[in-house]
Structure formats: C-alpha cells, structure tokens
Amino acid sequence: MATWKTRGLRGSVLEEMINRTNEVYEEKGIALIQKIPTPITPIEMNSKKQITLAYFDKKSTIDYIGAIQGLPVCFDAKECATDRFALANIHPHQVDFMEKFEKQGGIAFFLIHYTAKDVFYYLRLCELKVFWERALNGGRKSFRMDELNPDYYIKDTNGPLIHYLDYIQKDMDERI
C-alpha cells in the first residue's frame, strides 16, 4: 500500500496544461479526453480539511483516456528534470495496460515534459518498449533525450496548450 505526503502536486503544471489542451479539443468537437483520478483513502487531514496523508486504494494505470474522432486514446503524463528519463517512473502495470489497449485498436503513449529545457515529447509505446526491453535484459534503466526520435518533439506548444494531436496522426501514419 503506497502512501504520499508531499508528492501530490508533482506534475501539476503539466497536468493543468494537458487539461486545458483537452478542454480546447472538446470545445472544438475534436476529442473527448478525460483525466482518470487516482483513488485514494485519506488518513490524515489538517485543520483546513486538506488531505496531508493518504494511501492509494489501487494501482493507477494511466492518467488520461478518451477518444479522438472515434479513435480510442490513452496516455500518461510524466515530468523529468534532467536529460535522462528513469524507467522507474513508468510501472509494469502501466505498460501492460497500454499494450492491451493497443491490441484493442487504440493508441497509447506518454507525454514527457523535460522541465529543465521546457521541451515536450510524445513517446510512442513502441519506442518505450525498446528502452523497456533493454532494461529488462540488463541494460541501462533510463533513456537519454538524444536517443529519442527528433520527429516526436512537440514543437507547436502555444502558451498553456500542448498540441499533441499531430503526433498521434504521425504515430498512426507510421503504423500503416
């Protein structure tokens, strides 16, 4: 049973940017993507009725799920403060869920925000699996930015928006 105290706001800026992007997509009738809340049970609360200690009821799979013009989509958002992303930030049950999701005809990916450089990356599940297998076979348990496909760095961020739809299209085009 995992507990948390101060990690609750980690990634909140990225999450807000994604939420705003998804609101715009919904307003334009392009997509319906929902944030999946992680179920928790509060243990301690402060005088302002804010949760200060809780445990997770079960493992969370992914952060977002929905449909983009009929295409099932799921993804997880991650932040990284360095040029090296530790695979420990991704859990086996997440990879398992995403693999099963894609077998059902959906698209699964990660949105990574490299905070030191303020760069966003669309990490395809197939690309992650190369690094994942490398780690499982005794190799490095992380990947560097310079190992990533430069075509999937999200170039057209606009203020609080992270335009990831073009990268989903590119991902689909490369699967054909």
Task: Describe this protein with a few key phrases.
176 residues; 3-stranded antiparallel beta sheet; 29% helix; disordered N terminus
Short description:
This protein is of the alpha+beta class and 176 residues long. Helices cover 29% and strands 32% of the residues. The protein has helices at 12-27, 92-103, 125-136, 165-175; strands at residues 3-4, 31-35, 40-45, 51-56, 64-68, 71-80, 84-86, 107-114, 119-124, 142-144, 153-154.
How would you describe this protein?
- This protein is an alpha+beta fold and about 180 residues long.
- It is built from four helices and eleven strands, in the order βαββββββαββαββα.
- It has helices spanning about 10-25, 90-105, 125-135, 165-175, and strands at about 5, 30-35, 40-45, 50-55, 65-70, 70-80, 85, 105-115, 120-125, 140-145, 155.
- Strand 8 and strand 9 (about 120-125) form a beta hairpin.
- It is globular, with a radius of gyration of 17 Å.
Helix-strand layout with pairing:
Blueprint: E1 3-4, H1 12-27, E2 31-35, E3 40-45, E4 51-56, E5 64-68, E6 71-80, E7 84-86, H2 92-103, E8 107-114, E9 119-124, H3 125-136, E10 142-144, E11 153-154, H4 165-175
State the shape: globular
Instruction: Please state the structural category.
Output: alpha+beta
Distance between the termini: 42 Å
Our Rg estimate from Cα atoms comes to 17 Å
